[in-house]
Amino acid sequence: MNIVFTYLKAHLAKDTTAAVDVADYHPSFKNLAFARRILDIKLTTAEYNFHRKYKKRELNKIKVIKYRMLIKKIDTISQRKTYFDKDLRNGNFEILNKLNHFRIKTNNDFSNSNISNVDLSDIFLDGSKFINSDLSGTKIHINDANFSNAKLDNAEIEFNLGCIDKNFMDKKLIDNSDEKTLFHTLRSIDDKYSDIKIKLVNQLIKDVGYPNNIYVNSNHINSFLNYIFSKEYYLEDKEIRNSVKSLLDKLTLTENDEKYIKPKYVSLYLDMISKFFNDQEKNDFMLEDNGDFIKLMAISLYHDDINIREKSRDLYDKYLKLEKVKPFSEGIKVGNDERVDWDSEGAGNNIILINKDKTMVTSYKELNKMLFADPTKADIQWNSFSLYIKEDEQTINRINLYNLFNKDFKIFKDNYNVFKDSCHVLILHEKFNKLALNFGDYAERFYSAFIGNHILAEDRLIDRDKKEQTKMYGVLNELIDIPENNILMTSLKNEHYQQIYDIFELNGLSNEEKSKYLLCLAIIFVKYSSNDVFGLGNGSPRSLKFYAYALINKANELDKRLMGDDYNDVISDLLVSGNETTETTGLYFRMRAYGEIHCAPIFNEMMPPQWK
């Protein structure tokens, strides 16, 4: 081999094979770094072209294979460098600092070497091996490493997560035997250095943010929990224990679906509490974190796995013996061994929930329905419980259930609010259906649009021969007055206003509140006149705009301050010249924004959910 020619070919032509040959001939850090750099660039380009450019796909495939083989060769050459089986306590790591600038993964082999009391924290060493090496007192920041049988007394090891590209972080957090992950690095450290491993796990929890990071998915969580539960010393650390508990608490949450927590995690959660929580921590969990405790009991007391059932029942028996719980446990059936008799879910074994001075007592079945059933389908009795303040029983029909489930017993918050919203929607639909009945043959179409159904073109109220509009005006004549000589005097008939008054239960409200209801109803009919509903193209049915105007006029009559100067702008947009011109979508968005600001919370009560 003519080394001069090969050197020139490598540096001038950027030939990858020549660059590797030069590194093989003289494996200096400079030659190795140069070969790696051009290989990384050319491999990245070839992979990109292979996936994006189909014309030369086969050629790029050959290039990818070639560059990967050359990278393996350069890795082998690198192993011959002077880091293996050497005393490196006074070594010169200047070239590694240069490689660090380019974040080049060198896969150095420091096996059998003495690198004690050396500060390597500023050097990028990912992919390195430290098998049987002495790293006593050494500082190192690394993600991918093999510390098998390494001496790590007083070593300071940290992960260097900041240098991992976000696109690759996902793989690093999923424990996979085919990929080098952070968990492989942790496993390579001997268990006698559990203090180092605990510190690394705490750093992982802090930097990744497992319990609170919305981008952390179930695969990440499974990998993390599987690893943590593989070594008991992790759970002896309070910070790790609390983070694991937070994760498990989140896994018991559901969105009106199946209980999402794997049986092995239920069992491990119960073991963690029993084995690693001291008495004070157990009491705090059962009382201060009562919601999480009760969710765990709801899932486990009648679990299919007998071991989970027994563990949870042992824990619940201890709960019943707490001084704060005892006064409310008298009605619970117990056997001769003074343990709760869990003979069936139908047994009178009530579940006791505690929040400060408030105590709720309900059956196990009702608890599960309130927590996990679909509130829009299940028959949930939201008043099937007893409530005590201190030890005084409260009258259920005098309790503000919204505050109780949103502020005091928050574990029911999501399901209760879904239930309330679904009830509100049903009531709103019923009210609007009653209003729609006043529109004769259009009642079904109006109600269908209100509940979110798409209106077909043939059902729109825009037509060339005006028959549809004539028919619609005939219906409106029963509901509003439209003076021929002054359309600005269009108004609701008194009888129809009374119908609206009764349907929407305006009795007892101030004129200001009544005005807001009417304006919100007008916003709905402005939406109806747009091409999203009954309009078509650039046309809006003028009949619906007249009805919306009549509602606005009445709202303004009741409270002129509600719309102020905006009143004139709105009526101008509604009643412009021409029968079916000026599409109202833009006006609807303006009025909706106005309603959100000036008519809340009535606006939220009146608007169909799909329009918000």
TrEMBL record:
<dbReference type="GO" id="GO:0016567">
    <property type="term" value="P:protein ubiquitination"/>
</dbReference>
<dbReference type="InterPro" id="IPR025725">
    <property type="entry name" value="SopA-like_cat"/>
</dbReference>
<dbReference type="Pfam" id="PF13979">
    <property type="entry name" value="SopA_C"/>
</dbReference>
<protein>
    <recommendedName>
        <fullName>E3 ubiquitin-protein ligase SopA-like catalytic domain-containing protein</fullName>
    </recommendedName>
</protein>
<dbReference type="InterPro" id="IPR001646">
    <property type="entry name" value="5peptide_repeat"/>
</dbReference>
<dbReference type="GO" id="GO:0004842">
    <property type="term" value="F:ubiquitin-protein transferase activity"/>
</dbReference>
<dbReference type="InterPro" id="IPR038270">
    <property type="entry name" value="SopA-like_catalytic_sf"/>
</dbReference>
<feature type="domain" description="E3 ubiquitin-protein ligase SopA-like catalytic">
    <location>
        <begin position="485"/>
        <end position="612"/>
    </location>
</feature>
<dbReference type="Pfam" id="PF00805">
    <property type="entry name" value="Pentapeptide"/>
</dbReference>
